[in-house]
Every structure is written in C-alpha cells, then in structure tokens.
C-alpha cells in the first residue's frame, strides 16, 4: 500500500477516536475523580514531552543549550513571570548559550 493510504487510515482512526468521546455519558465526565485524572494525565504528558524534547535528539541523550533554556524558563516561572515572558527568557537563554559556543 502507498504511504497516502496509511496517512488516510491514520486520519480516519484519529477522527473516530475523537468522535467516540461524544459517546461517553455526561454523568461519567461530571464526577470529580474524572477531573482529577484528566488534570493529572495532562500534567504528566506535558512533563514527559518537555523532558524528551530537552534531553533527547533522535536516539541519543544530549546535553546542550536546551537545558540552559529550560532552567532559565523554570527560574522565570518561579519568579511568577507571565507566560510570554517565560517563553522569551527561555529563547534568549538558548540563543545566548548557542552564541557562547554550547551546541
């Protein structure tokens, strides 16, 4: 099969999985436990995505300017900076570290 058939099949599966969410009864979604589970899963997924994007490049573990950018953004968060400023601090830190010669 062509690659386009696989892409089309993936689109159909993604659409059907989103559509199946509408079939869940409201009484299940309104429970406080479901809200806690959804919030916890969201935080866990975001943290794992951040870790993978910071410390991995392909199949390798790397230590580069992304770590400095993450630390600078974390400090900005601890200082209660607005989100846009946190992103800008991380970007500037990465740029300065790369300018200083860190890969």
UniProtKB/TrEMBL annotation:
Pfam families: AzlD. The chain crosses the membrane at residues 6-25, 37-56, 68-97. Keywords: Membrane, Transmembrane, Transmembrane helix. This is Putative membrane protein. It comes from Arthrobacter rhombi.
């Amino acid at each position: 099969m062509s690659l386009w058939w696989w892409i089309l099949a993936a689109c159909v599966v993604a659409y059907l999985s989103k559509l199946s969410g509408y079939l869940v009864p409201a009484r299940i979604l309104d429970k406080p436990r479901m809200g806690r589970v959804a919030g916890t899963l969201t935080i866990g997924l975001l943290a794992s995505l951040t870790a993978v994007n910071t410390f991995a490049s392909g199949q390798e573990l790397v230590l580069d300017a992304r770590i400095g950018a993450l630390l600078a953004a974390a400090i900005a968060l601890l200082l209660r900076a607005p989100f846009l400023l946190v992103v800008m601090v991380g970007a500037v830190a990465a740029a300065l570290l790369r300018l200083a010669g860190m890969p």
